[in-house]
Amino acid sequence: GPSSVGMDFSLHGFDHVYGIPQHTEALLLKNTSDGDAYRLYNLDIFGHKIHDKIGIYGSVPLLLAHKPNRTSGIFWLNSSETLVDISTKAVAEHVASGSAAETAKQRAVPLTDVRWMSESGIIDVFLLMGPTAFDVFKQFAQLTGTQAMPPLFSLGYHQCRWNYEDEQDVKAVDAGFDEHDIPYDVIWLDIEHTDDKRYFTWDKKKFQNPRKMQEHLRKKKRKLVVIVDPHIKADPTYTLYSQAKDKGYFVKDRNGQDFEGICWPGSSCYLDFTNPEVRKWYADQFAFKTYKGSTNILFVWNDMNEPSVFKGAELTMQKDAVHYNNWEHREVHNLYGFYQQMATAEGLIRRSSGKERPFVLTRSFFAGSQRYGAVWTGDNTAEWGYLRISIPMLLTISMAGISFCGADVGGFIGDPEPELLVRWYQAGAYQPFFRGHSNMESKRREPWLFGEKNTQIIREAIRERYVLLPYLYTLFYRAHTAAEPVMRPLWVEFPGKIETFGVENEYMLGNALLVHPVTEQEAKAVSVLLPGSEEIWYDFRKFKRMEDPGTLKIPVTLENIPVFQRGGTVIPLKTRARKSTEWMIDISYELRVALDTEACATGELYLDDGHSFQYLHKKQFLYRKFTFRKNILSSSCTDESGQYHTTCVVERVIVLGFGQQPNLVTACPKDGKEKEVVFKYDTKTSALTLENLALNVDTDWKICI
Ligand code: MIG
C-alpha cells in the first residue's frame, strides 16, 4: 500500500532550476504553486500535450539548480510515483554592514523551494555539490554510470516507420537511399514484422527469409533494428510465454496469479524484469540460435515498457501488482523499462560472447539508463510546436545523464508539410540520436517523396551529419569517460552569463558548435544569441567571422539552419559523406580550426574500431589532440595508453580567422621530411585552407605557418 515520503529543500540564491525529465515542457522549470506539480510517473501518453507537467514515458529524479558560476543538484532516488513542487521567490536577506553604527542593510535574493513527494519507498537523497555543472554531471555519473559508448553506426541516420511492410518494402526503401544518394545506416521494423505480435518471431508471409534480407543489408554495410516489447502474448503454443509461465517469470496480481493485461497481441503477461533471473533468461533469448532469423546486424528497440497496459488505469500496470521479492508495482514502476533495456543490452552483448557493443533504444527510462543505450521522446506530433519543444526536452534528458537521445524526425503522429519535415531533418542532423519515424496512419515519408528541391536539402542535412561524425563520436567518448553531455544548454558552457540561463531555442553540441534550428514556418530570419563578450564565433559553413557577440538577426533560407563554431576550438570532420558509416572508414579527415582572440585553438579526435569492446579491454583506440598556437598546428597524443592503427589521414585543414595571407606553410611529420603545403587564403573571410596534407592521424606532426 502507499506509505508516502517527502522532503523540502530550500535552494538559497537560486532561481534557475532544470532537470527532472520527462515532460513536454520548457527548459527552465516553472513555479508550480498555482498549478500542477511536475509528475514523475512513466506513462504511455499518445499525442502528449505541449506544456504539460504530466509524466510521460521516462523519469530521472535529478534536479539541477544554477546561479552565476555555481551549480548544484538534488538526486531523489525513488522509483515510485513522484511529484515535485517548485516555488521560486525573492526573499529579503540581511547584509552584514561594516560598522556597528550602520544599520543592517537588506537586499532581495532569490530562493527556490523544492518539495519532493513520493508515493512509497524510503528517503534516499544525494546532494550534488558541483560547484560547476560539469562537476554535477560527474557526481551524478559516479552514482548512476556514464553513457555507454555507442557503436558508430548508431550515430548515423536511422530510417523507421510503423511499418515497413515486408522484405520487398525493406529492399525498396534501402535501394531508394542509394538511388537518391542519401546516406543512412539502419532500417527499422515495427511490431507488424512479427507473427501476430509474438516478439522474437517473424510474420511468415511478409518476412519469409529474414536472414537473407539481413545478408542483403549487410552487403550494403547497413543494419536492421527490430522492435521487442515487454508484454508477452498469453498463448500456450508460444514458447516464450509457456516457458516464462512455467518458470514463474511474469509479474503477479495481488492474488498471486500471473497479471494479465491487454496490449498489441491481445491478452498478455508482463515479464518481471526486476528479477535478475528473468533478466538473464531474457538476455539468453537474443542468442542467435534461440532468436531464429536474427543475425549480428540486428539490433533492438524496446517500446511500451512504462509498461503500457491497454485498459489499465492511466494505460499502465495497476499499482498493487506484485514483483520479485514481493515488491509492489508501485515501488518499482519507474524502473520497469530501465530493467528491460538492461536485459536487452546484456543479451546483445552476450550473443557476441562479450565482444560487440549493443544498440538498444528504449522509450521508458530511469536514472542510469544511459548505461544501456539510447532513448527517444516517444509519440510527438508533426507540428511546429513539437519541433520547438523537442529542443528543451532533449536538453533536459541530456542533463539528466542520458546523452544518447532524440525525437522522431518529422513528428510521429500526422503528416508534416514538406517545410516542417525539412526543418526537422536539419535539427535532427545536429542532435545525438537521429531517426525519421512515422505512425501507421501517416503517409509515407521517405526523404525523396517531397520533390527534387526538398530531397536535395534533406540529402544535404544528412550528409552534414555524416561529415560531422568524427566530432560527434569524440563527444560520445567524452560522455562515456567524463560524463559530459553531448548536447548541452548554453548556460552549461557560459555559466556566468545570465542571458543564457533560459535559452532553449538553440544549444551547444559539445563545446565547439552552437546550433540554432529553424522552428518557425516560412522564417526569413532568426535571432541568434552568440554568448560571451570575449568569444569569437564563425559561420560553420561560410567561415566568416560574425560581428560582435550578442543577439544577431541572421537571415535564413530553406537550405540550412544556422550553425556556428566557437573560436578556440578544433573540430574533426570527414572530408565527405558516403552511403553509410562503414563505407566511410577510409575517408580522410578535415580539421576546422577556429581561432580565438589570442589566435589559439584546441580540439580532440577519438577513434577506434567503432563496434567492439577492444577499446576497453585491449586499449585499441586513438585519442589525439590538436593545438594551434603561435601559428603552429600540432597533433599530439592525449592518452598514451591507447593504440590503434589506421591508414586514414588528415587531408585538409581550414583555419578560420587567420590574420593575413602567409608566405610559406610547411608540414613536418615527426619522423618524416618537412614539405611545403599548398594553401589558399580568402581575404574576405580570413579563412586559410591547407590541402593535400596526407598527415597520419596516428602520429605526431606539426604544420608551421
Ligand atoms: O502505441 O509499435 O512510440 O514509436 O511506432 C503505439 C508501434 C505503439 C508506440 C511507439 C511508436 C511505435 C508504436 N508504438
Automatic annotation (TrEMBL):
It comes from the Eukaryota. Gene3D superfamilies: Glycosidases, glycosyl hydrolase (family 31), Golgi alpha-mannosidase II. Residues 484-571 form the Glycosyl hydrolase family 31 C-terminal domain. Belongs to the glycosyl hydrolase 31 family. Keywords: Glycosidase, Hydrolase. It comes from Pterocles gutturalis. GO terms for biological process: carbohydrate metabolic process; N-glycan processing. Transmembrane segments: none annotated. Residues 148-475 form the Glycoside hydrolase family 31 TIM barrel domain. This is Neutral alpha-glucosidase C.
